[in-house]
Amino acid sequence: MGEPDPAIVVRGLDFEYRNTKRRVLDAIDLVVPRGQRVLVVGANGAGKSTLLRVIAGKHLVAPEVVRVLGRAAFHDPDLSTRVEILGGRFPFDVDLRVDEILARASDLDPVRRDHLVEVLGVELDWHMHAVSDGQRRRVQLLLGLVRPREVLLLDEITSDLDLVARQDLLEFLRRESEQRGMTILYATHIFDLVDRWATDLVYMSHGRITFRAPLAAVEELRTDPLPRVMERWLRRDLAKR
Asked: Beta-strand (E) ranges in 33-180?
């Protein structure tokens, strides 16, 4: 048997938002094998969030340009049960408890649900209209991860979590990728812990991917930690503007 198809294939992706003349993504080529944990790094406005949203099927692109799990990212509705994107605002502020929200989904694996509740430190009696930003983020992660997915796209999802919560979440995601083959793209500006977590690095600048390699192959990481290397790269980009 041959190798399985890559989880994500992007070929010649150009993208600009409607009614704008600025190209947000420019000639993007990206192939991500299944099971990889990829850091997506770049300055604000580099195109990271847009790339994740396009891969998640949130924007119309030609079927042959972005393929996820062998299917057209935007055009195949079946991908909605196999691909999850998490990030951005989570304005779920109705007067419902977490356990009431979970009870509405009858097809959940109770073992996985309970494990995630423990990993994320979620209290089932939290009322969603009265939680902090960090607690709201934990609930968003719980609801997004409680059903297994094959591709997970994370957009600055840990910015509201403390160090322990980030560590526990990353360890859970590592197991998901190693044991279940889940593919993860993680756009972040928080670099603590991820140098021991990620398998690969994608660096974006001005809508382009300017660097793509396994993390172990990044020469500068042999002498400097990841946060210092990324700071140097980001400052170099800012100096070019």
From this structure: 37-41, 66-68, 71-72, 83-87, 151-155
